[in-house]
Each structure stands twice: as C-alpha cells, then as structure tokens.
Amino acid sequence: MKSLFTILVVALGLFAMSTACSPSKDSEKTPTEEASAPSTLDTVQYKKQGMEIAMGTFKVLSGQLKAAMQEGGVKNAAQYCNTVAYPLVDSLSGQYNAQIRRASNKVRNPKDAPTPREQEILDAYHAQAAAGEQPKPQIRQLASGEIAFYAPIMMQDLCLKCHGKLGETLKAEDYAVIQELYPEDNAIGYEAGDLRGIWSITFPAPN
Ligand code: HEC
After folding, report:
1. Ligand 1 atom nearest residue 69's Cα
2. Is residue 49 within 6 Å of ligand 1 at its C-beta?
3. Quick check: 164 and 171 in contact, CB under 8 A?
4. I need a surface site. Which of 116, 127, 159, 164 has the fewest CB within 10 A?
C-alpha cells in the first residue's frame, strides 16, 4: 500500500513537472518542417496521456526486472530482458492503442536505434542535459496527423548493474552474459542521473 502511494506521489510530481512547462514555448522549437505542435489544449492532454503510458510501461518493466534479479541475479535478469522487454512493450502498445518505443544514442537492442525524428529529439535533450537543464516531455503532430510524445529516460542506480561503467558498477562477469545476447551492445558507461534515451510514443491521428 505504501509503495502504491509512493508511485502516486511520484506520478503526480512528474505530471506537475510535465505540465509546468509552457506549451507555447515548446511549440517554438519545432524540429522539422512537417512536424508541428497541436493546439494548447491537446498538448496538455497528450502530455498527460504520454506520461501515463511511459510510467505504466516503466512500472511493468522495472517490476519484472527487479523480480528477475531477485530470483537469479543480474545474469538471469539480463536474459529475461532479452526475451521479454521488447514483446512486453509491444503488447502494452496494443493495450494503450499507441505505439510505444524506447530509443537511445547508445543502443543495446538494434531495434531501438533512433529514427531521424527521434534523433532530433535526442540531440535536443542531450544538449539540454549538457547545459545542466532537465529535458522536458514534448508533443509533436506528425505530417500523417499522428501525435508523437517524447520524454527523457534517466539512469538510476539500479540501471547501472547492466548499463554502468565496466569493472565498476557493471561487473565483467555480468557484462559477458549481456554481450553474448547483444554482441553489438553500446549501452554502457552510464552514471546515475545521465540521460539514457527517450520514450517515443505515437498516438493515432485524432478524428
Ligand atoms: C538486468 C539488466 C538490466 C537492468 C538492471 C536494466 N536494463 Fe535496460 N536493458 C537491458 C537489456 C537486456 C536491454 C535490451 C532489451 C531488448 O532487447 O529489448 C535493455 C534496454 C534498455 C533500453 C532500450 C534502449 C536499448 O538500448 O535497446 C532502455 C532505454 C533501458 N534499457 C533503460 C534502462 C533503465 C532506465 C534501467 C533502470 C531503471 C535499466 N535499463 C535497467 C538490461 C537491463
């Protein structure tokens, strides 16, 4: 019950953060010609929905991850992530009627490599993070009419066991297992508080 309360408090905090930024300011930073911010009212609504989905997905993923780590350590959890993370996010996409993706400049799963539009958002977020600013959730309307939501994914202590600095927070023996599963892995070297990547959630075009 207490943890549920904590989640609620965190959720409200994040929601407050996501709506605190002024939508009109965001819309000035349109990254491409064909993308533009929808009306102020929609922006607030879509941001709320996007945050709910991102947090819901994160909750499911990290809950399963913790359980797998408790059961069989980091190696077990890495194998578990390998088989479950992608299909799980995919099935949540169906449940929420929105396409849910995660993308990063340094990917583990090649399917999470950024699209050109995601790359623009990643570049902007990384520039903000480098300037000491906290990147904020963003809404874009695509040329197709679909609505895209983006939000930063930040590193926490727990994440470093699989994404941290090799030989320090990330044990060599654990990384050997990860590299077997992902020979091209690039997703290490992070510290807590680093920008890891983005949520990229696409809603169908409104009627
Ligand atoms: C037990 C190991 C493990 C832990 C702990 C872990 N991850 Fe991962 N992470 C993985 C694996 C494995 C993948 C690839 C999943 C796939 O194939 O879809 C991944 C993929 C990702 C991706 C998708 C981008 C990419 O590189 O493919 C993001 C974003 C991510 N992790 C963030 C996090 C965050 C944030 C945390 C902490 C809350 C975390 N991870 C904790 C193993 C882990």
Report:
1. 1
2. no
3. no
4. 116
Other beta carbons within 10 Å of 65? 21
Half-sphere exposure of 196 (CA within 13 A, CB side): 22
Which of 107, 109, 174, 199 to mutate for ligand 1's pocket (most ligand atoms within 8 Å of CB)? 109
Q: What is the pTM of this model?
A: 0.83
List the chain domain ranges.
Answer: 32-203
Q: Residue 17 has what pLDDT?
A: 35
Residue 128 structure tokens: 């903000």
Strand partners, 103: 198
Contact residues for 46 (Cβ-Cβ < 8 A; gap 6+): 38, 139, 147, 149, 203
Q: Is the CB of 162 under 6 A from ligand 1?
A: yes
